[in-house]
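Lab notebook page, bench 4
Experiment: in silico fold of construct C2
Operator: M.H.
Input chain length: 250 residues
Purpose: comparison with the prior construct
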Amino acid sequence: MLPQRRHELILRTLRSDGPAGVQVLAERLGVSQATIRRDLVELDRQGRLTRVHGGAMAAEDLDDPFAEVAMVRVEEKDAVAERAAELIKDGEAVLLDIGTTAHRLARKLHGRSLTVITSNLMVYEELKDDQEVQIVLLGGVLRRSYHSLVGFLTEDNLRQVHADHLILGTSGVRPGGQVMDTTAVEVPLKRAMIAAADQVVLLADVGKFPGTGIAKVCGPEDIDVVITNAPADPATAGALREAGVEVIEV
């Protein structure tokens, strides 16, 4: 494949699918990772994309916080998302939280007979053309910076739905097991999601322990399962066990 053609395919992939890692691009184009790295260096020099740790994003994503976060710890998020997908059975309804890990999980749900309830617009974009998946899109005020819908309308919608599972994200888990968030506008929504689901599954990769956050979403007693790729520190593990939380390490 000529370099020019390869460059066009790389840019097309980044624009259509969002930020991507070197391994993903190499597999998609059928070339070595070394070749992709050289291509990314050249395209970055031309100002046609932006290199980030482990991959690249389209130039138009420079001011997109979601895109930037999406490229952080991609392999870890994928491992956690893969395990979460195994908990979801065909025919069930699953509520997907705002955030990048929920988007990674949505990629694992293609072709399955499920109902997906979400205010995450990246989840919607991922699954909208999949005829097997029924999507319930929660209304609300557009939060452009994070591709999501928020506010009192979203909360009202959540009171009208029920899910078998909630896949919950977090900014961090404190040593006492408290689930935290850095964005105040998301906290009421996460609490409403917890109330709307039979089982609450928290996805927390290695960067979330001991994580940060200005606002408490819930305590460990509100969580049923934690899926993580990080060995829990003794204090956090003890608090979760005491609250009856199942901790799954991947």
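Observations: The longest helix spans residues 3-17. The chain has a mean pLDDT of 87.
Next step: discuss at group meeting.
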